[in-house]
């Protein structure tokens, strides 16, 4: 077990280092941010002084080494726009992102899990057709279009909730439901398929032959094993959602990390871009690391290298 954990941990560290490197060099491709930071009509000398103060006049390799050294100390630099530590700016937006992500995920798991189980247990009948239709539409509908339609109907026409913003349960409902529809559709479709495959396994037929109660067979033999691919997808979704649902946060003016990174890219705010993307990547890697640990719990053969 310890070798399994060490291997997964090493892979996580290498992944984070790779993201740190990629985001540094890709960020430099956005262009020179100095022109956005100086007043209109600033002289070339003023721009050169600011560029030197930000360390942007150094060779690229030297900027990279300085950047990596600062990151190892937990210093991602100071935001060009907010004039605050970049990671502090990003972390201030995390509560809003966590609130949206966890609410949407909870709704999606409940609806999608229930629908997937119902579809698997009713193969070839109308409940399965209904669930598959919902899953197809939910996965195919663009998030930005769905968000706009929900705003037009529930906020503009009915006036039940605000069109956007942050602070109350009413502000949370529409963006959470927008994200949850895609999540529930994905979970329902995958869980149905996984359960149908599991129901055909020999150990399930053996459990039925032994006369075990249907509930025991469903929960202990079928659902437990069918959850492995679903947990993989949920781990990926957690990483994506905690990294900020950029489109949803933008449509609903939700002050989360995704919207912040989008604005930082537009403003060429390198420190915030780097801090935001690194935080997102770290969350994504940790989520997948936890998924690996859950694999080992659900199927001990995985940690022993037999599966």
Automatic annotation (TrEMBL):
It is found in: Cell membrane. Residues 94-291 form the ABC transmembrane type-1 domain. SUPFAM superfamilies: MetI-like. InterPro entries: BPD_transp_1_N, MetI-like, MetI-like_sf. It is a multi-pass membrane protein. It holds the Pfam family BPD_transp_1_N. The chain crosses the membrane at residues 12-30, 100-121, 172-191, 226-252, 272-298. It comes from the Bacteria. One of its GO terms (cellular component) is plasma membrane. Keywords: Cell membrane, Membrane, Transmembrane, Transmembrane helix, Transport. One of its GO terms (biological process) is transmembrane transport. Belongs to the binding-protein-dependent transport system permease family. This is Peptide/nickel transport system permease protein. It comes from Ketogulonicigenium robustum.
């Amino acid at each position: 077990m310890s070798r399994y954990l060490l291997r997964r941990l090493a892979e996580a560290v290498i992944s984070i280092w790779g993201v740190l490197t990629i985001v540094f060099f890709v960020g430099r491709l956005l262009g020179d941010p100095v022109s956005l930071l100086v007043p209109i009509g600033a002289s070339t000398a003023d721009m050169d002084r600011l560029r030197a103060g930000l360390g942007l006049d150094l060779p690229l390799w030297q900027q990279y080494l300085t950047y990596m050294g600062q990151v190892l100390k937990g210093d991602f630099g100071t935001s060009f726009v907010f004039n605050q530590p970049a990671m502090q700016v990003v972390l201030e937006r995390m509560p809003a992102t966590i609130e949206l992500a966890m609410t949407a995920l909870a709704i999606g798991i409940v609806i999608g899990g229930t629908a997937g189980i119902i579809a698997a247990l009713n193969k070839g009948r109308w409940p399965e057709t209904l669930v598959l239709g919902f899953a197809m539409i939910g996965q195919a509908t663009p998030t930005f279009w769905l968000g706009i339609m929900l705003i037009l109907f529930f906020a503009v026409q009915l006036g039940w909730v605000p069109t956007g913003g942050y602070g109350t349960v009413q502000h949370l409902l529409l963006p959470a439901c927008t994200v949850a529809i895609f999540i529930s559709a994905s979970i329902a479709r995958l869980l149905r398929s996984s359960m149908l495959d599991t129901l055909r396994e020999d150990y399930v037929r053996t459990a039925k032959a032994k006369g075990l109660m249907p509930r025991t067979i469903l929960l202990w033999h079928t659902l437990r094993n069918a959850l492995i691919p679903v947990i993989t997808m949920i781990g990926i979704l957690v990483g994506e959602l905690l990294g900020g649902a950029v489109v949803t946060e933008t449509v609903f003016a939700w002050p989360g990390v995704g919207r912040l990174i989008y604005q930082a890219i537009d403003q060429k705010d390198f420190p915030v871009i780097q801090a935001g993307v690194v935080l997102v990547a770290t969350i994504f890697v940790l989520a997948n690391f936890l998924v690996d640990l859950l694999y080992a719990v659900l199927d001990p053969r995985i940690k022993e290298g037999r599966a």
